[in-house]
Design brief:
mainly alpha; 6 helices; disordered C terminus
């Protein structure tokens, strides 16, 4: 009789609104663990897409500057030292690297598959190297411009020489800023994927302990 009375008391407590602890704990875990992770992942995707868009814009701008330099050097053939970076081809192959890496960053931000993430990581490493090489080439071009401007007084067309030197310095300075920006973005995206891989490996190692 006492056992039946205890069972009836437990049934009444359950019907009055009491819930077992096993039903409450999963909700607490879901609210405290999984929702912040999803929020951080969404923020990371948006950040990656924004950085990829900036990479594409950088590459397109450098390519446009390279086309402009090519048109100038075809018209003013006597001032070739001012267009040294054009003959290296950096405005073309550098822009291609930046646009491709930016496109992969945008695609990886929208749908981060394993294969796409690996390609994006490798392409950003290549873009970092390309930006570093481009920084050196543009810096050399600026140094050559400074030397060529000193030789302008001995030139027959003094005003045109000074005008071309100033124009080349402006283009090289803008290209240098864009190259440095691309270098920072490529390193940031690569570091982001490295940090993500480290976090995933730690979660994989700690998951057996959490499940126990």
């Amino acid at each position: 009789m006492a056992s039946r009375g205890d069972e009836n008391a437990e049934l009444e407590a359950a019907s009055a609104g009491g819930t077992p602890a096993s039903q409450v704990e999963p909700e607490v875990v879901n609210n405290s663990v999984y929702q912040p992770i999803n929020g951080s992942q969404n923020h990371q995707k948006e950040k990656l897409q924004a950085l990829g868009a900036v990479q594409i814009l950088n590459g397109a701008t450098i390519l446009a500057l390279g086309v402009f330099l090519g048109s100038l050097q075809s018209i003013f053939r006597d001032f070739r030292p001012f267009f040294l970076v054009f003959y290296t081809g950096y405005p073309l192959w550098g822009a291609v690297f930046f646009i491709v890496s930016g496109s992969l960053s945008v695609a990886a931000g929208r749908k981060p598959t394993k294969k796409l993430v690996e390609h994006n990581f490798g392409m950003n490493i290549a873009s970092s190297t390309t930006a570093l090489v481009g920084f050196v080439l543009v810096s050399i071009n600026l140094a050559v411009n400074k030397y060529s401007l000193k030789e302008c007084p001995s030139s027959q067309s003094l005003d045109l020489c000074i005008c071309m030197g100033v124009l080349s310095n402006g283009i090289m300075s803008l290209m240098l800023i864009l190259t440095l920006l691309e270098l920072c973005i490529s390193i940031s995206v690569s570091a982001m994927w490295c940090a993500e891989n480290v976090c995933n490996s730690r979660e994989a190692i700690s998951s057996p302990g959490n499940s126990v």
